[in-house]
Amino acid sequence: MKLGLQLNSFDWSGGAERFGRNLADIGRVTEEAGFDRIAVADHVWQHPIMGGPDANEPECYTTLAFLAANTQRVGLTAMVSGVHFRHPAVLVKIVSTLDVLSGGRAGFGVGSGHYEEETQGLGLSYPPQGERFEMLEETIQIALRMWSGERGDERPFEGKHYRLGRPLNLPQSLSRPHPPIMVAGEGEKKTLRLVARYADACSLRPGPQVIGKLDVLRRHCEEEGRDYEEIEKTCAFAFDVGESGEKVDELIGQLRWLSGMGIETVIGFVPNVDRITPLEVIGSEVIPAVADL
Fold first, then answer.
1. pLDDT, tens only, 30-76
2. Does residue 102 contact residue 76 with C-beta atoms inside 8 Å?
3. Number of domains in the chain
């Protein structure tokens, strides 16, 4: 099992004046501890479950680019980008640039999006959910076009929501055939079918329903002619090791439970991550304990 760090709470000690130093320290120690990737929440307002609009929420890809400059090996991805925030071609250019600047470490996390309040507050588009699912599929199709070959598949793209006259993409991503695509969500009729059709990874919520969701994904893979084993099974979680590591055994047990249901990678939020110590505890005690799961 691999572990990733999810950054989705940013009210760190020292406030905005220390934010850059805190983030650089988090990136450095995350890499030293042996985490597989760092995933940054992609919202423009903080989500209600993490404190709501009055809490800090930095822009995702600026944060990932800063982490790219302050790390050497760890993977970098959004967790995840709603398709309503950016035009697909712009989003692909952003991820391609992150991949180039990081030496081939970018991932492409994408979903249909949620949290209407933030879009109303900042005047962003928020189409109905059915349209957002259509936009999600077209976004992935455009990404695969732009990441095709050395320059992108330059033939025009004509979709219901997007039209590209020439999907040129230079500089092309270093990751080949493209940065890994993770489609978030566990809707059985639409989302998991899109995972089977296009994605390199899924992202599920933790819970006993994981077994059933993966069974559905397997059936979609059979229908799409896709190898189920090719898809990375990931899950969001919380890595709470306690104030001084007293919850390490409990966390290891939870990770074993997820592994037993078929989860291969867990991307976790770490309470008080800016204290750094929890990351060091996870690196020394948790990551080695689950590496062979």
1. 999 999 999 999 999 999 989 999 999 999 999 999 999 999 999 99
2. yes
3. 1
Q: Is the dihedral of CA 281, 287, 288, 290 positive or negative?
A: positive
Cα separation of 207 and 148, whole Å?
37
Peptide bond into 179 cis (omega under 30): no
**Sequence-distant (≥ 6) Cβ neighbours of residue 24 within 8 angstroms:** 66, 70
Helix H or strand E segment including 202: strand 201-204
Q: Which two tokens mark 59? A: 């822009």
Q: Are 162 and 111 in contact (CB under 8 A)?
A: no
- Helix and strand counts by DSSP (H, E) for the chain: 10, 11
For strands 81-82 and 75-78, give the pairing.
Answer: unpaired
**For the domain that residue 70 is a member of, what is the CATH number?**
3.20.20.30
Domain of 277 in residue numbering reads as 2-290
| Helix H or strand E segment including 217 | helix 210-224
The DSSP call for residue 106 is: B
**Mean pLDDT on 252-272:** 98
- Residue 154 half-sphere exposure toward CB, CA atoms < 13 A: 6
Write phi, then psi, for 116 (nearest 5 degrees): -60, -30
CA distance 101 to 69: 8
Query: Amino acid identity of 282?
Result: I
